[in-house]
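Re: that chain you flagged

S.,

Sorry for the slow reply, it's been a week of failed gels. I finally had a moment to sit down with the sequence you sent. For the record, here it is as I used it:
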Amino acid sequence: MNEFAIAILILLAVAVMEAVLNVKLYRRLQEWREVDHSERVEILKQQSQVRNALRELYKHAQKACEIRSDMLLKITDLERCAQAHEAWIAEQEEKQWAVGKVMDRLAEYEDTGMTPEEIEDMKWNNEWQDARSSTPGSPGEYWVTIDEGGIRTAQLRTFRGEWIVGPSEIVEAWMPVTHDPEPYERRENSD
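Prediction finished late last night. Pasting the structure tokens below so you have them in one place:
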């Protein structure tokens, strides 16, 4: 039986004892006039003992109520801790999932037999490079996007430390010769 049930039983017992005591006192008061002095003293002692016992029962009932209140607070704290723990577990599972995705991605790199640097070079070789910020590392033929009076075209041109182009042609972008490209579309930065 938990402390709360015990406290309720104690309070009920106290109430019953008070009712019984009040009935007895009422009967005694009726008989009081017929009782001699020594009996009256004995009755008063019994009443005092019953009241002291009732006070003790009240103290125990109050203590049981305090214990119940403390238990409810602890249960609430435990529930909060459990919720926080569940949230932490969910976060860890999400991190584990993310690590798994990274590991899968790394496995894809490993399956190609290429290093990440080689893959980056391959990516570099298949994308337009802005001619304002980079030039090829070696001389040769390259695809270039030429702007000639607002008309943009992709053409093969030679690079020998500088682009070999006509006087009105501007090289906007370049890429190694791997396939026929679409003309470069410059994206203006909002820097």
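What I noticed first: The radius of gyration is 47 Å.

Talk soon,
D.
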